[in-house]
């Protein structure tokens, strides 16, 4: 039963994310943005933690589920507004993932477990939540950091070191080792900055 539930839930997550009106290039093809992100998350999780639990695998695939439905512009454009947006997103993703899992036939205990991971409950103490965070940060560094840098030419070196350190602090020591051992593709132009930031 679990295998069928798992396949049904993953397919439904992807179907939901395929509705994203925003597009992104991945491996030379255009994809719905959140579908590309979800598949990159699963791909990184298989590289970093192939023996991850079923709950982690589901949470990793659903981490940004239907993210475009809660735009940043709906909240005040200040630090407080940003934090409210992030909190709202965590709850929305957790509820959306839980509803899809219920339709796929999962029981309440597994749904709650995945919701806790997706909403980032117990970071640093819940090993499953930390594992999803590690995967998300590794994906950000490999796939999105260079693009983020291109959007912010006004940031100086000190600002970049601060951003990289913030990401680094959210990761476990194991994820640090994995990133620095050549297991992910670091954005070439930013390698000196990354190394400086994490020293």
Summarize, please.
With 199 residues, this protein is mainly alpha-helical. The chain has nine helices and two strands.
Can you tell me about this structure?
This protein has 199 residues and is mainly alpha-helical. It folds into 2 domains: 1-119, no CATH class; 129-199, no CATH class. Helix content is 68%, strand content 4%. The chain has helices spanning 2-17, 33-48, 54-62, 79-103, 108-118, 127-151, 157-170, 173-183, 191-198, and strands spanning 23-26, 29-32. The chain has a two-stranded antiparallel sheet with strand order 1-2. Helix 1 (2-17) packs across helix 2 (33-48) and helix 3 (54-62) runs parallel beside helix 6.
What spatial order of strands do you see in the largest sheet? 1-2
Total discrete domains = 2
Q: Quaternary status of these chains?
A: single chain
**How many alpha or pi helices?**
9
Instruction: Report the count of strand segments.
Output: 2
Unreliable residue stretches: none
What is the helix/strand order? HEEHHHHHHHH
Task: Return the average pLDDT rounded to an integer.
Answer: 93
Overall, the morphology is globular
Q: SS-based structural class? A: mainly alpha
Strand content: under 5%
Intertermini distance: 47 Å
Largest sheet: 2 strands, antiparallel
Helical coverage, percent range: 55-70%
Task: Supply Rg.
Answer: 17 Å
């Amino acid at each position: 039963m679990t295998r069928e539930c798992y396949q049904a839930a993953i397919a439904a997550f992807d179907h939901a994310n395929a509705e994203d009106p925003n597009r992104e290039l991945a491996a030379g093809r255009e994809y719905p943005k959140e579908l590309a992100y979800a598949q990159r998350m699963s791909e990184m999780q298989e590289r970093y933690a192939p023996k991850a639990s079923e709950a982690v695998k589901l949470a990793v695939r659903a981490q940004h589920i239907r993210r475009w439905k809660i735009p940043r512009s709906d909240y005040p454009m200040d630090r407080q507004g940003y934090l409210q947006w992030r909190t709202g997103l965590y709850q929305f993703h957790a509820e959306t993932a839980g509803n899809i899992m219920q339709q796929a036939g999962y029981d309440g205990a597994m749904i709650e477990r995945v919701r806790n991971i997706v909403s980032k409950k117990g970071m640093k103490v819940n090993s499953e939540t930390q594992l999803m965070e590690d995967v998300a940060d590794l994906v950000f560094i490999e796939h999105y950091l260079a693009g983020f840098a291109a959007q912010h030419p006004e940031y100086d070196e000190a600002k970049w070191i601060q951003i990289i350190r913030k990401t680094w602090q959210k990761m476990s020591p194991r994820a640090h080792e994995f990133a620095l051992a050549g297991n992910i593709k670091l954005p070439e132009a930013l390698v000196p900055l990354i190394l400086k930031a994490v020293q």
